[in-house]
Specification:
Structural class of chain A: alpha+beta
Oligomer: heterodimer
Structural class of chain B: mainly alpha
Distance between the termini of chain B: 27 Å
Number of domains of chain A: 2
Helix content of chain B: over 70%
CATH superfamily of the largest domain in chain A: Rod shape-determining protein MreC, domain 1
Strand content of chain B: under 5%
Number of strands of chain A: 12
Strand order of the largest sheet of chain A: 1-2-5-4-3-12
CATH class of the largest domain in chain A: Mainly Beta
Low-confidence stretches of chain B: none
Order of helices and strands of chain B: HHHHHHH
Number of strands of chain B: 0
Number of helices of chain A: 4
Radius of gyration of chain A: 25 Å
Strand content of chain A: 25-35%
Shape of chain B: globular
Radius of gyration of chain B: 16 Å
Chain lengths: 288, 169
């Protein structure tokens, strides 16, 4: 038999070079679809819903249990100490609380006058567990274990420890991806709580090493803003609800153009140890 | 068929290790790039065809779970797998130098592409910072982890698939 004739029992395989070409073209088309036209890829998201997410859920539950057992032993001593400290603090706070309660009654009556009685603590929220961190060192996104089945939608705000964590950018049937405010591509429109001056808070990979995110576009005329001031989400933001705590200013300086001020903010959420988050199950666009 | 199932299981295992297990136990902010170890090794051990498919599958999973630009990781990991596969002829099972170099250079290429397309394009010019604090620790950590995972992949390759090179070397 001539060596050029293919043996009949051998199955025909498409040469590797053609596969390379086909898969490259496929990827490029996907890139164009998502980047240029910004279309969601629902069916592809479902691939993960049934393969990886169930496993990740299991592992994160087991891991958390192991971790909490280990921590439990370590913390018993600390707790006794802390208990004493806290009882002292409770006494102080009770006094302060009664004072604040009076303020609150006054505030309520005033808010009723302005019909502004809805703060973010009143929005319906649902808890979710973080099951996967971002898969590299470049971006700060993570995956939570609830999705469209639980009523989550793109654009919903995510909180933890009473502060802003980020927003949902992608939803599968039983998982969703959260873009945190410390991510390098994230921008949040915020304001200074005391003076209502608007500024833009941007996540930054390079300053997050020291625990900061950056802000800019604070007007130079905002004279009363000081280091330590509280930053909350602004009422002009189109994705974030107003009044959610973001962090405190820890450093500020005038830009070289003498028109604006920029600097660093310490976020109020500890992003190193997020295991559970709260999702506000309303989208801001629906309210308006 | 056997190869397909084992590859699929390995991809899912490595992905879960990287995305869920390592962030849980890490003490530093840097996590190693386990998937690049798998892609590089399967290219190197099994040839460009398998390397390409494994690379594409890994990149695809990463794309679904972490990226805005869908397809970026797919194409990057696929080419890394394919290029590693071209060196399949140098595959001697006892030799550790070449796979180490391959893994390091693959991870480096992966990081540099990520920096170039996803950070430099958004005018983050401070390459020195990103190189010393993100890329270098990741590459070193990945190499250290590869010392553990390479023998596992090696055993699968040598005993499950009865590679001919195993006897010849």
């Amino acid at each position: 038999m001539s060596p050029l004739v293919r043996r009949p029992e051998e199955k025909y395989k498409l040469p590797t070079k053609y596969w390379l070409l086909i898969l490259s073209a496929f990827s490029v088309i996907l890139m164009l679809v998502t980047f240029v036209f910004d279309l969601p890829l629902k069916p592809l998201n479902e691939v993960v819903s049934y393969t990886v997410v169930p496993l990740q859920k299991g592992i994160s539950i087991v891991g958390e249990n192991l971790y909490s057992k280990k921590e439990l032993l370590k913390q018993v001593n600390e707790l006794v100490e802390k208990n004493n400290e806290l009882t002292k603090q409770v006494n102080d706070l009770t006094i302060e609380n009664s004072k604040l309660l009076q303020d609150k009654i006054e505030l309520n009556s005033l808010q009723k006058l302005y019909q502004l009685d809805q703060t973010y603590s009143d929005y319906p929220k649902t808890g979710a567990r973080v099951i996967s961190a971002s898969t590299g060192n470049w971006f700060s996104t993570f995956i939570i274990d609830k999705g469209s089945k639980d009523g989550l939608e793109i654009g919903m705000n995510v909180l933890a420890d009473g502060g802003l964590v980020g927003r949902i950018t992608e939803v599968g049937s039983n998982w969703s991806r959260v873009l945190s405010i410390i991510d390098d591509t994230s921008n949040v429109s915020c304001m200074v709580l005391t003076t209502n001056d608007h500024l833009m808070v941007s996540g930054s990979l390079s300053t997050m090493e020291n625990g900061y995110i950056t802000f800019n576009q604070l007007s130079e005329n905002a004279k009363n803003v000081e280091v330590g001031d509280k930053i909350v989400t602004s009422n002009i933001s189109d994705v974030y609800f107003p009044g959610i705590q973001v962090g405190n200013i820890s450093y500020m300086e005038k830009d070289s153009n003498h028109l604006s001020i920029s600097g660093y903010i310490t976020p109020s959420v500890n992003f190193e140890h997020i295991s559970e988050v709260l999702v506000i199950t309303k989208v801001k666009a629906d309210l308006e | 068929m056997k190869r397909f199932i084992i590859d699929l299981l390995l991809i899912i295992l490595f992905f879960i290790l990287q995305a869920t297990v390592f962030p849980m136990i890490k003490n530093t902010r840097i996590i190693p790039n386990l998937l690049i170890i798998l892609v590089s090794c399967s290219g190197f051990m099994q040839g460009e065809r398998e390397g390409m498919f494994v690379g594409f599958a890994c990149g695809f999973l990463l794309d679904i779970c972490s990226f805005e630009i869908f397809g970026f990781n797919s194409i990057l990991y696929m080419f890394i797998g394919y290029l590693n596969g071209l060196l399949h002829n140098f595959f001697y099972l006892r030799d550790l130098k070449i796979p180490a170099i391959m893994i390091v250079s693959s991870d480096l290429v992966c990081c540099l592409f990520t920096y170039f397309f996803l950070f430099l394009m958004r005018s983050r010019f401070n390459f020195g910072y990103y190189f010393t604090y993100i890329i270098l620790p990741e590459v070193v950590f990945t190499l250290l982890i590869a010392v553990i995972f390479y023998p596992i992949l090696w055993i699968i390759e040598a005993y499950v698939f009865k590679k001919k090179n195993a006897e010849s070397s």
